[in-house]
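User: I want to check something. If I give you two sequences, will you return the structure for each one separately, not as a complex?

Assistant: Yes, each is folded on its own. Here is the first sequence with its structure:
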Amino acid sequence: MIPIRDLNPTRSTPWVTWTILLLCGLVFLWQATLPDAVAEAFIDAYGLVPRRIVYGQDPTALVTVLTSMFMHGGFMHVAGNLWFLRMFGDNVEDNMGPARFAVFYVLCGVAAAAAQVWMNPASPMPMVGASGAIAGVLAAYLVLYPTARVVALVPIFIFLQFMEIPAFIFIAIWFALQFMSGVGSLGSHAGGVAYWAHIGGFVAGLVLVFAFRTPRARAPRVPFARRRVAPWRPGEW
């Protein structure tokens, strides 16, 4: 399924979401201007390498937990991540507010990095991308707007058809695919998609959303008013 847009309007401008989109886009465009050797060195220096964090090979390695969240490995990588963030981030920010959403986003990204390091601590491959933090945004959207409709392009046999799908179904299918792929990647030290970062970010989002969301206002309680009723008299109903 390819998500096209959600049918869930917002009440405010998502400044943090747009800022993240802009920063990721600018960093990728800058990466694209570098010669191949320089670009690889840049990713190796500022991408998250689990082995460096676990074995303390670089005292500044913890900084890469943040820098790696704004870097991407290719056009499809950055395009896919930013598309998901654009679609789901504005509504989550609309509920949380800019400041809380920014903290929530970073914490989900940190949790995603921790999950990937935990599952593959000896990996020498640099991990880059915002997908772990964005997975947390998807989890928050699932909790906040489970019945919102997502317009998606769905393959049916050899045809593609636009369909409106409830958000909880779309996101549940997405997470199931990540989990199955993550289990299938266990024991592999080769590069590829950091599925456990997706899983870790998603689980963190499911937990943290309850601390960062804006609760819905409860309807005011109206006390029950008793009326004194006059005794029934003949000729009256």
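And separately, the second sequence with its own structure:
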Amino acid sequence: MNSTKKDQLLKLRAKMAADKTLPLRKTATCMVFGEGNPETKVFFLGEGPGYWEDQKGRPFVGNAGILLDKLLHSIELERKEVFISNVVCFRPPENRDPEDAEIAAFKPYIDEMISVIDPKIIVTLGRFSMGKFIPGVKISSVHGKVHRIQLNGKEIVVLPMYHPAAALRRNDVMLQIKEDFLKIPELLNEIKENKEKTTQTEQLEII
């Protein structure tokens, strides 16, 4: 019997929790794996857990998380309808930026997480998750712009955005992230329309 996506994610979480080679473990309170709907079309990838995430073991539950929830509501989505994780799953000390080697250590797990969920859209929040898919660019020049890349043999949309924490610090970034979020329902509608066209074509071929 085939295991469900939820089962596969639970196994991946247990494997990550047991991996003593992962960096940042010693200074963190707990692992923040990620949460949400395994069947979602939209995957949000941030940078790393902060203080409250480290305390509660959940991604985006501090002030940046409150803003993320509001941004989701603005496009009529709920947190439980999407999936949210980070490029590192233990909190860097003093909320410092994750280092390249730390991101690389978590990469196999994040890649497998994305592979299991198989989303249509990956929204990167901040420059570190953006760099995973679109290296060598500045977030100021590419935020809100649709990038279509090949991932696991399939075309996927990567939509880079500023991190919500940056929006809390700067009004101009707040305006930009609100505008960028409006691209998500547009993309979901496009995906739905393309699926319907494909289904109609397949039905015609059968007839």
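Because they were folded independently, the notes below concern the second chain alone. Residues 5-202 form a domain with the Uracil-DNA Glycosylase, subunit E fold (CATH 3.40.470.10). The longest helix spans residues 183-206.
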